Amino acid sequence: MNLLKIKIQTLQINKPMKNILLISTLILGSVAFFTSCNNSNNENVKNETPVKVVEKKQMGEGETGIAMAYYHQDSIATQFGFYREIDSVLKSKELNFQKELERKYRAYQAYEADVQKRMEANEITGYQIEDIQRTAMEKQQAIQQFEQQRGAALQKESMEYQTALMNKIAEAGKEFSNKKDIDLLFFYQKGGQITFINNAYDVTDEFINFLNDREEELMSGFEDEVEAIQEVEEN
């Protein structure tokens, strides 16, 4: 009597989630920090040298001028110490997730190879086929469930950390603007909503130095901020 041959369905694992909401996509839209407007007016200011960012610029005839400035978002991601630290933490969590998923996948492949080897050696009887198929299905489902649930949890955690960090930068941006008498502070990045802006309004280096000088202050209470965001999401 020929032994019944079976074929174990090869498990197809979705490619692990890559760069889950990296800190480089921290802020998804144009974020402006508004502080109180001064009432001084300048009319038709024309200088040969670059305009100082704290100067009031006339936005229209009879309108009150505003002082605006911007910083490069990419520079914040690479030069602000606390930003890099959070990015490193999230990347480490993602890497651990990928390694665990790959370990589970390799274990399933080893199981599949063992079954195939036993079949070729005629060590599997027809009575064992149903149990083998059931076990294979359970292993597949367990891996898929891990990928979906752990991946979703990691994505949620990443969003919470990013939101908390965004709040910290917003607080620092308001303080920086008040100190520099800036009415409008926003970030600039290639591919964003702003096509062009004069370099005279660039305060990237100053803002990064300001953030790094207050790194410990910004780090203080960060976990509490994350927990507060979690509570809001759960309610």
TrEMBL record:
UniProt cross-references to SMART domains, sorted A to Z: OmpH
Pfam family, one: OmpH
GO molecular function term, any single one: unfolded protein binding
Cleaved signal peptide residues: none
The organism's place on the tree of life at top rank: Bacteria
SUPFAM superfamilies, sorted: OmpH-like (SSF111384)
One cellular-component annotation, GO: cytosol
Alphabetically ordered keywords of this record: Signal
Coiled-coil residue windows: none
GO biological process, one term: protein stabilization
Similarity section: Belongs to the Skp family.
Full protein name: Outer membrane chaperone Skp
